[in-house]
Design a protein that fits this description.
heterodimer; A: 342 residues; mainly alpha; ABC transporter involved in vitamin B12 uptake, BtuC; two-stranded antiparallel sheet; B: 516 residues; alpha/beta; six-stranded mixed β-sheet; 17 helices; globular
C-alpha cells in the first residue's frame, strides 16, 4: 500500500465522519437500551404516584396528557420520514402555525369547514414541495432550507391573522367536534394522532419507501449508486412532513376554537426531542421510528405534567425538553468517542 | 539480480554531512516484517527518487520519517548530522523534515495566504491578523518558488501545479527551523503533463537552493527526468541506490519487481458469444477515450497507474455520474447519471470505495444485499422482511459470509465478508454485466479467492465482467484480456496468457510522442 492510498483512506474516513448525518448519529449511539424510555416512564409514574397520588394517579391525567400531546405527537410524526432520509425539516412547527391560522381565517371568510381544511392541507403539501425543490434541486442543506421556510411561514401566519387573535368557532358543527369530541372514551384528537401514527408506521416499516429512506439517511451516495431514487424519496419525505404538519395545525385550531399568529414555533423543540429521543427506543438499530417517538413523547409529557401538578412553574416544559435534548445528544457524542477509540 | 550497492552515490565532498541519514530502520507489524534494515543517505541539493511496487514498504518508511510510526529498535535517523527522536511528528518537523502528500492538505475555500498561515499560526495572542503584510509575505514566498500567483484567490481556483506549489511553500515555510529535506509523495499523480513540467522546474530550483528532495513516484519516466539518484525498495528491503545515469529503465523495473520481464506480443481475443457491453468513446475526468466491447462470459481487465484513467473506467461505464460517449447494454443505449436505469439495463457495479459508495455499515447484511431491488420482496403492498432474510441466507451460504446471520450489522463484518455482501447484492440480480473496481481492496486472502471464484462462476453463467484493478496479479488471474491505460487512453491490449509483470511494465510506459 502506498502512502497516497493511506492518505486517501484517512481522508475518506474523515469525509465519512463529516458526512454522516446527525440524526443518524444520534439514533445510532443513543441505543443504550431500547426500552429505557419505558422504564423511565415507569419511574416517573412511580415518583409522582407517591408524591401526589390523589391528583396524578387518575384517568384524567391520562386523558389530559393524551389530548394535550396529540398535536405535538403529529408534529413529531411529521419529522420521521425526513429524519429517516437524513433531512431536518425545521419548518414543521411554523407550518403547523400557519395552517392553524389559515384554517380558521378561511372559515371566518365564508369557506365551509371541509373546503377550509382541504385548502389548508394542500398548503402544507405546497410547503413540502417548495422545501423539496430547494433541498433537492437547488441542493441547499435541509437545515438551512427549512429554517428559511420556517421564517417565511411565521410571516405568513402574521399576515393571515393580521397579527391578532382570531376567535369564533365556525357554526358548521364538525370542525368544532373533532377538537373536543371523543369516541369510546378516547378524545378524537388522540384517534387522529393514532391514525397518522399507523400510516407512518406502515410507510416506514412495511414499504420499500421506508427502507429506501433509511438507506439514504445512512449513506446518500451509496444509496444512489445502489439504484435508489434519492431525489424522489427526499422530495416525497418533505412533502409528507409538510402535509402532516399542516394537519397538526388544523387539529390545533379545532381544539382551541381560536388561533393566533404565534401558535406554531413552541412545537419545534418537543417534536424534535420526541423524534430523536424516540430513535433510541423500541428498535435496536437506532433508527427513528413511530413507536419510539410516541414512547419518548409520553415520557416527556408525563414528566412535565407531574412537575406541573406539584407546582412547578409554566416554563418547566421548555426546560425539561431542552435538558432532555441536550442530555440525549451528549450521550450520543460520548458513545461516538468510545466507538472511535476501539 | 544486482547486489545492494548503497555507496554508488558518492557524497558531495563540499558538504560531508548528509541532509538525511537513515540507518538500520526496520519495522515489524505482528509477524510481518514490512521494512528490513533500510539505510538511506541523501545529501543537500540531491533529488532522490524512491520507487517500489505497492506493498514494498514505501509508505511505512515515509510514516517512520514523519514520526507517525515508531521503527523497531536500533533505527537511527539524523537530519544534517543531528539525530532525530523518531516517533514524534513534531521532532521530525523541528529537525527540518517536511512532507507534501499527494492529497496536498490544502483547504480549497481558503486562499493562498490563509493556507500558508495554517500550521504556522497568524499572530501571537489575540491581535488582529494584518492581512496586507501577510499577503505580501505569501506573494514573496510564492515568487521565491517561481510562481507569481494571486494569493487572494481561493486555492480551488488555482492550476493543479500552483496548488502543489502552495503546499510546497507551506511545507518549506520557516516555522522554527530551516527545511532541509522535502519529501514529495506522488506529487504528479493528478497533474497533466504540462503542469508536471512546472512542478519539476520548482523541484530543480529547490534542489539548487540546497534542499534535499525525496521524490516518490509510480511514474518511472518522471524518475529519469527529475532525479539525480534512485533508491529501489522491494519487499521491505532497499535493493539498491544508484546514480540515475548508471541505470536504465528496464533495469530499474527489473530491480523493482525482482525478476526479469518477458516481452509478450499484445494480442486480441476473438469470441463468438453475444455482445453484452459496447462502450464508444467513453470519457470523463482523467479518462480521455475508451471504446470497449465485452461479450457474454468474457472478463476484461483494466490496468493503469493512478491518473491513467483506470480509476474512472468502472464508474463511467456504470454511469455513476455524467460522462461523454455512449454505452449499450445488450443492444440498448443506457443513459449516464441514473444508476437505477443502469441497474434496470442489467449492470452491476462494485465501487472501489466500499465504505462510502457501497456499504450501509449500520444496516444489516440482508438489508445491504436487498437494497438494489427491494420490489422482489413486496407482496400485497407489504414489504416481507422474512422473504428478504431468506434470500439473504441463501447468499450468505453461497458466498460463505461470516457470521452467517442475515440480521447482523454490516459494520461488524471483516472487510472481506463485507465485500462479499456487496457482491451478493449484485449477483442476486443476475446482471448482464458486472463492473468491478478494485474488487479485493482491503480483502483478506481467503475471501479474495472466494470472490474470484464467484466472479468466474458469474462469467461462466454468461455475465460480462469488467475488472479494474491496481493488483496486476488479480487481473492476470481473472481477465481473459487486459487493457492497459496510459494517460487516459488504451496503450496496449494483452490476451491470455497474461503475466502480472507484463501489465506492470506496460502501465509504466511513456505515452506515444512523449519525450523527456
Amino acid at each position: 500500500m502506498t502512502l497516497a492510498e493511506d492518505q486517501d483512506a484517512a481522508s475518506a474516513r474523515q469525509e465519512q465522519a463529516r458526512s454522516r448525518s446527525i440524526p443518524h448519529e444520534v439514533t445510532r449511539y443513543l441505543a443504550l437500551d431500547r426500552l429505557s424510555g419505558i422504564y423511565a416512564l415507569g419511574v416517573i409514574i412511580l415518583i409522582f404516584g407517591i408524591w401526589t397520588p390523589d391528583t396524578f394517579l387518575t384517568m384524567s391525567t391520562v386523558r389530559t396528557i393524551a389530548a394535550n400531546q396529540a398535536v405535538t405527537a403529529i408534529a413529531a410524526l411529521a419529522l420521521i420520514l425526513p429524519l429517516a432520509a437524513g433531512l431536518y425539516d425545521l419548518s414543521v412547527a411554523a407550518n403547523l402555525g400557519a395552517a392553524a391560522a389559515l384554517v380558521l381565517y378561511l372559515q371566518l371568510h365564508g369557506f365551509s369547514s371541509v373546503t377550509a381544511v382541504l385548502i389548508t392541507v394542500l398548503g402544507g403539501v405546497v410547503v413540502g414541495l417548495v422545501n423539496g425543490f430547494v433541498v433537492v434541486r437547488l441542493e441547499v442543506n435541509s437545515f438551512i432550507a427549512t429554517l428559511g421556510m420556517s421564517s417565511i411561514l411565521a410571516a405568513a401566519a402574521y399576515w393571515i391573522t393580521g397579527g391578532n387573535q382570531l376567535v369564533g368557532k365556525p357554526s358548521a358543527g364538525w370542525f368544532g367536534t373533532i377538537g373536543d369530541g371523543s369516541s369510546l372514551g378516547v378524545p378524537d384528537p388522540v384517534w387522529i394522532a393514532a391514525g397518522i401514527a399507523l400510516i407512518l408506521w406502515y410507510l416506514t416499516e412495511w414499504t420499500t419507501v421506508g427502507r429506501y429512506a433509511f438507506a439514504i439517511g445512512a449513506r446518500r451516495e451509496a444509496a444512489r449508486l445502489a439504484g435508489v431514487r434519492v431525489n424522489r424519496i427526499m422530495w416525497s419525505s418533505l412533502v409528507c412532513s409538510g402535509l402532516v404538519a399542516s394537519m397538526a395545525g388544523v387539529l390545533l385550531t379545532a381544539e382551541l376554537g381560536s388561533t393566533s399568529p404565534d401558535l406554531g414555533p413552541p412545537y419545534l423543540l418537543p417534536a424534535f426531542t420526541a423524534a430523536l429521543l424516540g430513535a433510541t427506543q423500541i428498535k435496536a438499530n437506532g433508527r427513528v421510528n413511530v413507536f419510539g417517538t410516541l414512547v419518548a413523547l409520553a415520557l416527556l409529557a408525563t414528566g412535565i405534567y407531574g412537575l406541573q401538578l406539584v407546582g412547578a412553574p409554566g416554563f418547566v416544559s421548555d426546560l425539561f425538553n431542552g435538558v432532555a435534548l441536550i442530555v440525549s445528544v451528549s450521550l450520543a457524542v460520548q458513545a461516538t468517542r468510545r466507538d472511535r477509540r476501539t | 539480480m544486482s547486489q545492494p550497492r548503497p555507496h554508488d552515490v558518492q557524497p558531495d565532498p563540499a558538504d560531508p554531512v548528509p541532509a538525511l541519514e537513515v540507518s538500520h530502520v526496520s519495522k515489524t507489524f505482528g509477524p510481518a516484517m514490512v521494512l528490513r534494515d533500510v539505510n538511506l543517505t541523501i545529501h543537500a541539493g540531491e533529488v532522490r527518487a524512491l520507487v517500489g511496487e505497492n506493498g514494498s514498504g514505501k509508505s511505512t518508511l515515509v510514516k517512520i520519517l514523519a514520526g507517525n510510526y515508531t521503527p523497531d529498535d536500533g533505527a537511527q535517523i539524523s537530519v544534517a548530522g543531528q539525530p532525530v527522536r523518531v516517533h514524534q511528528p513534531a521532532a521530525s518537523d523541528q529537525a527540518g523534515l517536511r512532507f507534501v502528500h499527494q492529497s496536498l492538505g490544502l483547504i480549497d475555500a481558503l486562499n493562498t495566504t490563509e493556507n500558508l498561515g495554517l500550521g504556522v499560526g497568524y499572530s501571537k495572542r489575540a491581535r488582529p491578523v494584518r492581512w496586507s503584510s501577510r499577503n505580501k509575505a505569501a506573494r514573496d514566498a510564492m515568487r521565491q518558488l517561481g510562481y507569481d500567483i494571486d494569493v487572494k484567490k481561493p486555492v480551488s481556483k488555482l492550476a493543479a501545479s500552483e496548488r502543489a506549489a502552495v503546499a510546497i511553500a507551506r511545507a518549506l515555510s520557516p516555522r522554527h527551523s530551516r527545511a532541509r529535506v522535502l519529501l514529495l509523495d506522488e506529487p504528479t499523480a493528478t497533474l497533466p503533463a504540462a503542469e508536471a513540467q512546472r512542478l519539476f522546474a520548482l523541484v530543480r530550483r529547490l534542489s539548487s537552493d540546497g534542499v534535499a528532495i525525496l521524490f516518490i513516484s509510480h511514474h518511472i519516466n518522471e524518475v529519469f527526468e527529475i532525479a539525480d539518484s534512485v533508491s529501489i525498495l522491494r519487499d521491505g528491503s532497499l535493493v539498491t541506490t544508484r546514480s540515475i545515469d548508471k541505470i536504465d529503465e528496464p533495469t530499474l523495473i527489473e530491480l523493482m519487481l525482482g525478476r526479469e520481464i518477458e516481452r509478450l506480443v499484445p494480442a486480441t481475443s476473438s469470441n463468438t458469444s453475444p455482445l453484452v457491453l459496447r462502450a464508444v468513446d467513453i470519457a470523463v475526468g482523467s479518462l480521455r477515450e475508451l471504446s470497449l466491447e465485452v461479450r457474454a462470459g468474457e472478463t476484461v481487465g483494466i490496468a493503469g497507474i493512478t491518473g491513467s484513467g483506470r480509476e474512472a473506467v468502472a464508474p463511467a461505464l456504470y454511469g455513476a455520474r455524467g460522462r461523454s460517449g455512449r454505452l449499450d447494454v445488450a443492444g440498448k443505449t443506457v443513459r449516464a447519471g441514473r444508476p437505477d436505469l443502469s441497474i434496470a439495463a442489467g449492470l452491476g457495479y462494485i465501487p472501489a470505495d466500499r465504505e462510502n459508495h457501497a456499504a450501509f455499515p449500520d444496516h444489516d447484511v440482508a438489508e445491504n444485499i436487498s437494497i438494489a431491488r427491494l420490489g422482489d420482496f413486496v407482496k400485497a403492498t407489504i414489504f416481507r422482511r422474512r422473504a428478504e432474510a431468506n434470500t439473504a441466507a441463501q447468499w450468505i451460504e453461497t458466498l460463505d459470509i461470516r457470521p452467517p446471520q442475515p440480521r447482523y450489522a454490516l459494520k461488524k463484518l471483516s472487510g472481506g465478508n463485507a465485500q462479499k455482501v456487496i457482491l451478493a447484492r449484485w449477483l442476486r440480480l443476475k446482471p448482464r454485466a458486472l463492473l468491478l473496481d478494485e474488487p479485493t481492496q482491503g480483502v483478506d486472502i481467503g475471501a479474495r479467492e472466494q470472490i474470484y471464484r464467484m466472479v468466474e462462476a458469474a462469467a461462466q453463467d454468461g455475465c460480462a465482467v469488467v475488472v479494474c484493478s491496481t493488483d496486476h496479479a488479480e487481473l492476470a488471474r481473472l481477465a481473459s484480456r487486459v487493457l492497459v491505460l496510459v494517460q487516459g487512453r488504451v496503450h496496449a491490449e494483452l490476451a491470455q496468457p497474461i503475466s502480472a509483470d507484463e501489465i506492470t511494465e506496460l502501465s509504466q510506459a511513456r505515452p506515444k510522442g512523449f519525450s523527456s
